[in-house]
Amino acid sequence: EKKLAILTSGGDAPGMNAAIRATAKIAESCGFEVYGIRRGYLGMLNDEIFLMTGRFVSGIIDKGGTVLLTARSEEFKQARFREIAANNLKKKGINYLVVIGGDGSYRGANLLYKEYGIKVVGIPGTIDNDIYGTDYTLGFDTCLNTILDAMSKIRDTATSHERTILIQVMGRHAGDLALHACIAGGGDGIMIPEMDNPIEMLALQLKERRKNGKLHDIVLVAEGVGNVLDIEKKLRGHINSEIRSVVLGYIQRGGTPSGFDRVLASRMAAKAIEVLNNGEAGVMVGIEKNEMVTHPLDEVDSTEKRKSIEKDYELALLLSK
Ligand code: ATP
Question: Which of 126, 134, 94 is nearest to 112 (CA)?
Fold first, then answer.
């Protein structure tokens, strides 16, 4: 008998529920018995594994967060605890696992695959878009739209008071959110961890804008660049306008998933089950050039081999002038 478990791990992201739903439905239609694991690897360790009925996934496609709950588990990084977790799966006869999460979650999944032969597939669920092997991660589009909404509101004050406002958005290693928000929201400056971001260059750009008659500036700062208040302090020495900073924080992670994220979640889930049905495992699914693809979990690295963002950076700079 084919038994498959689903878990969500790492930071929550809108679209995780849509992925849980689609995975459960498609797996069931392919003859799998479907289990849910609460609290990611922590729940696997604590045996929070339950038979998932169809009812569990009904009415969740439009809900943010994850109904399976998510957690982080330091213990799971140790072999002796992983053995307990793997045994909890084995004693229920579960030999297939779909992991929805970020690159850390994939590392754990890869170990379960290699050490215990559990047939795992990863689905990239994280707002940061910082996973190698996929053009988009689940939650990125929803988060981008949340940021754009906030930008419009913040711009009202920036304009009325003629201020320079720095908006710190999520993205520890990847500037994608800041970059896309800058392009789509008409941002006036950008700082991302992939680039050097000399404060003098930003200051020059902002001064130039004011010379050209612009009355306000909105600058997108990815959190990976550093504390936005420190950046504000540095910028004060260079420009005369009043500066304020906003940290958007957790509102970026929540909310109803966009249509794009729901479709992406469903397509990724379908690919994950297709892969397992074909006898493949130890891979993550992704979307590249609008095609569903897979990459070995061994290759996944959030920082080293990511897609190039230089063209988008140039575009953002050009449009922000
Ligand atoms: P996000 O980037 O959205 O936070 P993530 O999946 O990268 O998502 P992490 O906190 O890095 O989040 O990882 C989630 C969990 O995966 C960890 O708490 C841990 O249980 C497991 N994990 C991470 N790295 C490893 C590793 N090297 N070996 C075994 N398990 C790991």
Answer: 94
Which ligand 1 atom lies nearest to the CA of residue 172?
2
In DSSP notation, 240-296 reads -S-EEEEE-GGGGT-SPPPHHHHHHHHHHHHHHHHHHHTT--SEEEEEETTEEEEEE
What is this structure's pTM? 0.96
Residue 254 near ligand 1, beta carbon < 6 Å: no
* Residue of 7, 70, 77 to mutate, ligand 1, most atoms within 8 A of C-beta: 77
Collect all residues with Cβ–Cβ distance below 8 Å to 187 and sequence separation of at least 6. Answer: 151, 181, 218, 219, 220, 316, 320
For 221-234, the pLDDT digits (tens) are 999 999 999 999 99
The residues that are catalytic are 128
> H or E segment at 212?
none
How far apart CA 321 and CA 319 sit, in angstroms, is 6
* Percentage of the chain exceeding pLDDT 90: 93
Q: Which atom of ligand 1 is nearest to the CA of 126?
A: 3
Q: What is the dihedral of CA 192, 197, 203, 209, to 10 degrees?
A: -50
Q: Does the beta carbon of 226 sit less than 6 angstroms from any atom of ligand 1?
A: no
Query: Could you tell me the strand order of the sheet in which 243-247 lies?
Result: 189-191, 217-222, 164-169, 243-247
73 lines ligand 1 (CB under 6 A): yes
Q: Where are the alpha helices (DSSP H) in 30-165?
A: 40-45, 79-91, 103-116, 140-160
Q: Is the CB of 303 under 6 A from ligand 1?
A: no
- The pLDDT tens digits of the residues spanning 245-275 come to 999 999 999 999 999 999 999 999 999 999 9
Mean pLDDT of the chain: 96
| Cα distance between residue 261 and residue 253, in whole Å | 13
Distance (angstroms) between ligand 1 centre and the Cα of 10 equals 6
Tens digits of residue pLDDT in 24-36 = 999 999 999 999 9
Q: What is the pLDDT of residues 42-51, one digit of tens each?
A: 999 999 999 9
